[in-house]
Design a protein that fits this description.
This protein is of the alpha/beta class. 41% of the residues lie in helices and 20% in strands. 44% of the residues are buried. Bound molecules: flavin mononucleotide.
Length: 184
């Protein structure tokens, strides 16, 4: 797959599917994109930031307040000059924050700060996905112009099948390519 190189910000939420985002990160880099990764605190319970810094080739900021590395604020500096923000996995919590303008950590603050297109890849149990509050928040995100991929139906880590599985890295890469080509 050949593609114009782009600057992609990959935001990783605290769900089991975070391990797939390491593959996504590596594949984006292999396609020639400049990838920066931001993680929620919960995401660090699933994949270490060393994995993402090594795969992306860029340090993963610890949080909002890293004044020595980002004097203007990590949310300002990282949101500048990115072509696409990808949120994978997008937890129910992140989706709720995005839909309601809550900016209480680096990922949710960048969401509000950025001006580029965004691709959201939700992942959660089917019980969470089916909740009216989550569906309301998803409707809001779509109305707000977010691009959404998945979730898919299939095996979930809670040991049942249902809707809530994060789309596979290849599918997300396909959407990333489309959005980048559209923006160029
Ligand atoms: C083992 C485990 C797996 C989880 N998987 C998910 C998940 O797939 N999706 C989700 O929305 N929340 C999941 N959660 C709950 C989130 O980690 C929790 O809501 C957290 O506050 C999300 O924070 P974040 O949105 O800042 O990453 C999981 C929690 C645990 C302990």
């Amino acid at each position: 797959m050949s593609q114009t190189p782009a600057s992609v910000l990959l935001a990783v939420g605290g769900g089991i599917a975070a391990y797939k985002s390491a593959i996504l990160c590596s594949r984006l880099v292999q396609l020639g994109h400049c990838v920066n990764v931001v993680m929620t605190k919960s995401a660090g319970q699933f994949v270490g930031n060393s994995t993402f810094s090594a795969l992306s080739g860029h340090p993963v900021p610890e949080g909002l307040f890293q004044s020595s590395k980002h004097p203007l604020g990590a949310h300002i500096e990282l949101a500048q000059e990115i072509d696409l923000m990808v949120v994978a996995p997008a937890t129910a919590n992140l989706i709720g924050k995005f839909a309601n303008g809550i900016a209480d950590d680096l990922v949710s603050t960048i969401y509000l700060q950025r001006t580029c297109p965004i691709l959201v890849a939700p992942a959660m149990s089917s019980s969470m996905w089916d909740k009216p509050s989550v569906q309301r928040n998803m409707k809001t995100l779509r109305e707000d112009g977010c691009h959404v991929i998945g979730p898919e139906q299939g095996w979930l880590s809670c040991r049942e099948s249902g809707t809530g599985r994060m789309s596979e890295p290849d599918a997300i890469l396909g959407s990333v390519s489309q959005l980048i080509s559209r923006g160029k």
